[in-house]
Amino acid sequence: MIANLPTLRIDSLHIGFPVVQAALSGYSDWPMRVIAKRLGAPYTLCEVMLDQFLVEVKRRARNRHFLYISDEEHPVAGQLMGAEPEQFAAGALRLVEAGFDVIDINFGCPVKKVLGRCRGGFHLGQPATALEIVRRTRDAVPAAIPVTVKMRSGIDDSAHSRDCFYQILDGSFDAGVAAIAVHGRTVQQRYVGPSRWEFLSEVKRHAGDRTILGSGDLFSAQDCFDMIEQTGVDGVTVARGAIGNPWIFSQCRALAAGQQPPPPPTIHQQRDVLREHWRLAEQLYGERRVGRLMRKFGVKYSASHPSHAQVRGDLVRVRDGADWERVLERWYMRDGPGQYPPRSVHLNDSVHLNDKEC
């Protein structure tokens, strides 16, 4: 059993278990969040949405997946990214209307096109604008709904960037933000090199009893608890390590309960989740769209199968539900032990997924 495991709270919202699913652009939609919730994630964040999009989006069937949530996944946060403080607040209200329990402000996305449009991590170099966004959002959102912030450790490793980081961190808490998640890399780093957990330790010491969540290089249950133990953060947000691996949350709970080590999912356990994920996605997106959307998940799920390369090769060619079932019949019908996704899978894919943890 993990000693002195913190109980996570975000303002008045009781989360409890301190390992949650991060917002993942293009991934953490309703089906992914529901699967994670069922497998032990106490709290999830939706994929990041642009304030301008939220203000202008029409309530049509084709767009319903962006704001779709269900009773079983609460508490769930809506994450928002944008450039203009006024529009940011209006976008936040759309998330409130949709029923999200927390509004999360994204100041962490390192993608070049996002930075070029003065969004995401760009704001870490503009403390005045960042704090204006925070204040307007906090003022616009009902007091009962917590507002949180996602940050990286700065634009770069300069002293000026460090000063900007702490100005935004302290100013956000002063403005009423309930928690801040910090990724241990700079915007300039993107995903190159290891996440600097020692920076998270420094941030938590600075923040005191204010709620800090850590992020970066969390690919196993042990990673999650190592970060909590080594840095003192109040909780962790699992990002790339949760794509195609929702079992990381049940493994965390097993590890916390004293099971050493929690086993990877069996082939049949994987099959059942793959089948359910497809069903939920088809329910949300419709039969015509689901095949293309699910291929990217299939590629990541395949990393838990002992015949990873062959399974991946079949899943990447899936076009419809019949194809998906054929892959399950070929590779998942005979039960047996699974495997933990090789760390190399996450590191190799980071080149292609470096815009996902926004």
Describe the structure concisely.
This protein is α/β, with parallel strands linked by helices and 358 residues long. It is built from 14 helices and eleven strands. The chain is 45% helix and 13% strand.
What does the model show?
The chain folds into 2 domains: 8-262, Alpha-Beta Barrel (TIM Barrel); 267-331. It has 14 helices and 11 strands. The chain has helices spanning 30-38, 51-56, 85-98, 112-116, 127-140, 159-174, 197-207, 221-231, 247-256, 267-285, 287-301, 308-315, 321-331, 343-353, and strands spanning 8-10, 13-16, 19-21, 44-45, 49-50, 76-81, 102-107, 147-152, 179-183, 211-215, 235-238. The strands form 2 sheets. Strands 3, 4, 5, 6, 7, 8, 9, 10 and 11 form a 9-stranded parallel sheet that branches. α1 runs antiparallel to α10, α3 packs parallel to α5 (127-140) and α11 (287-301) runs antiparallel to α12 (308-315). It is globular, with a radius of gyration of 20 Å. Mean pLDDT is 91; it is low at 350-355.
Share in β-strands: 5-15%
- CATH homologous superfamily (4th level) name of the largest domain: Aldolase class I
Low-confidence segments: 350-355
Number of DSSP helices?
14
Write the layout of secondary structure elements.
Blueprint: E1 8-10, E2 13-16, E3 19-21, H1 30-38, E4 44-45, E5 49-50, H2 51-56, E6 76-81, H3 85-98, E7 102-107, H4 112-116, H5 127-140, E8 147-152, H6 159-174, E9 179-183, H7 197-207, E10 211-215, H8 221-231, E11 235-238, H9 247-256, H10 267-285, H11 287-301, H12 308-315, H13 321-331, H14 343-353
Parallel strand pairs: 3-11, 4-6, 5-6, 6-7, 7-8, 8-9, 9-10, 10-11
Antiparallel strand pairs: 1-2
Helix pairs in contact: 1-10, 3-5, 5-6, 8-9, 10-11, 10-13, 11-12
